[in-house]
Amino acid sequence: MSKSLVVNTPFKADHVGSFLRPARLKEARLQFENNEITADHLKQIEDEEITKLVTKQKDIGLQSITDGEFRRKWWHFDFLSGFDGVEFYETDKGLTFKGVQTRAHGIKVTGKIRFSTHYMIEHFKFLQGIVGEAVAKFTIPSPNMLLYRATIEEGVYASQEELFADLVVAYQDVIQALYDEGCRYLQIDDTSWATTFSEEGIISLKEKGMELDEALALSARAINESIAKRPHDLLITMHICRGNFKSTYITSGSYELVSETIFAKLDVDGLFLEFDDERSGGFEPLRHVTRSDLSIVLGLITSKHGALEDTELVKNRITEATKYVPLEQLCLSPQCGFSSTEEGNLLTEKEQWSKIHHVIQISQDVWK
């Protein structure tokens, strides 16, 4: 097993985590679902493909190394259903993105939420064992994804506050378990904030009986309390996403309405932010960054298509961001992963790696 390395900030050239699933892996997962191969056979193929992926990440020059989320169908449901009391199930319809729907899957709370063990601990251990001197970065969904996406069976919890308390403890426990296995770079992924980026989203909150300020306070509490007991040498970042399925999205809007909360009231060490197109608005909300120890990772390179961004334009946008945040606090990455679900975005693996190389090259020029 590789040694645990101290990571103080995200890397200047970083990435969100997921990569396109290789054809061999997709075929194996389909064979497993059709009872044509065993779970052990599928795991062997997953192990082999993840090992290849780790080698590719290291060869191209990444310093934070993930398993590409190769063992997952979904970036969030798979992890959340690993807690006691939470189940993965087939729903009536999928999630609605712009022009497309996902498969009809979801999670439901059927009992008290607890961490007794979690199968993804083994996923991290495998990754940690093969990264060598690089940093193993592990990605998990935010606790907000359960609060906002799960169906709660009647009679399980007397109040939302009771559920909230159990969820926070479960997160504290799983974070400690990952740390005990050597994790020093943990990323929390969260799409719930995007609901508050637009008037349409705020209306949907009100239809659920929740005001904007109430929603922001709840989301911030969920993050802060879940990571409150983390060891001092565990770097925790958060990726705020507007949706990423087959190169589509769920919502648009600036960070403005939530900027004072996410930039001044969250206890994370860094934020991965989407800034790849006009849907994200400008950099003005960054004026609310009040902490000198908060890293801002600019997602200026899109993962949704294969065309490479103009290098000078990206550099100019980084310069523009320095009007609000010092250059030393900024980093660069794609705006999201390449495969938030196993289907993946609409680009080739060659284009995917060209994007990563682009991030690294630009970062080396900017942060010499």
Automatic annotation (TrEMBL):
Protein's recorded name: Methionine synthase II (Cobalamin-independent)
Instruction: Offer an example of a GO molecular function term for this protein.
Output: zinc ion binding
Q: Which residues form the Cobalamin-independent methionine synthase MetE C-terminal/archaeal domain?
A: 15-341
User: What NCBIfam families does the annotation carry?
Assistant: PRK06520.1
Q: Name one GO biological process term.
A: methionine biosynthetic process
Q: Pfam families annotated for this entry?
A: Meth_synt_2
InterPro entries this protein is in? Met_Synth_C/arc, UROD/MetE-like_sf
CDD domains the record matches: CIMS_C_terminal_like
Organism in which the protein naturally occurs:
Psychrobacillus psychrotolerans
**Matching SUPFAM superfamilies:** UROD/MetE-like
